[in-house]
């Protein structure tokens, strides 16, 4: 029984350590570019989601022509944002 407990304790010590965080990983050049792209894209998408939430909430709670136009304009802007499209295709087709 003591052997089993010691074996389980030893296994826990070996398997119980968490992996190193991503920040400590050593990236090659392509992985670094991908990581930077994902970081930048996440920041842009977070900002866009927050902006759209405010605009869509305004329209949902106050249905006016003005708020409808703001909502539609923002959607068109996000679809046609050339910089985002360029980054997207650049990432797919380096």
- Proportion of helical residues: over 70%
- Tally of structural domains: 1
**Total number of beta strands:** 0
Coarse morphology: elongated
Number of helices: 4
Helical/strand content category:
mainly alpha
Name the beta content range.
under 5%
What's the overall average pLDDT, rounded?
75
The poorly predicted ranges are none
Q: What is the H-and-E element order?
A: HHHH
What keywords describe this structure?
mainly alpha, 94 residues, single chain
Structural write-up:
It is built from four helices and no strands. The chain has one domain. Helix 2 (29-61) packs antiparallel against helix 3. 79% of the residues lie in helices and 0% in strands. The protein has 94 residues and is mainly α. It is elongated and about 70 Å long.
Describe the protein's topology:
Blueprint lengths: L1 H14 L13 H33 L3 H16 L1 H11 L2
Helix pairs in contact: 2-3
Overview in brief:
With 94 residues, the protein is mainly alpha-helical.
């Amino acid at each position: 029984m003591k052997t089993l407990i010691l074996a389980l304790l030893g296994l826990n010590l070996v398997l119980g350590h968490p992996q190193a965080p991503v920040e400590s990983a050593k990236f090659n050049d392509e992985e670094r570019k991908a990581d930077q792209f994902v970081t930048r894209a996440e920041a842009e998408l977070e900002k866009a989601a927050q902006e759209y939430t405010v605009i869509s909430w305004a329209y949902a709670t106050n249905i006016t022509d003005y708020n409808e136009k703001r909502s539609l304009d923002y959607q068109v802007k996000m679809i046609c944002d050339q910089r985002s499209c360029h980054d997207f295709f650049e990432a797919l087709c380096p």
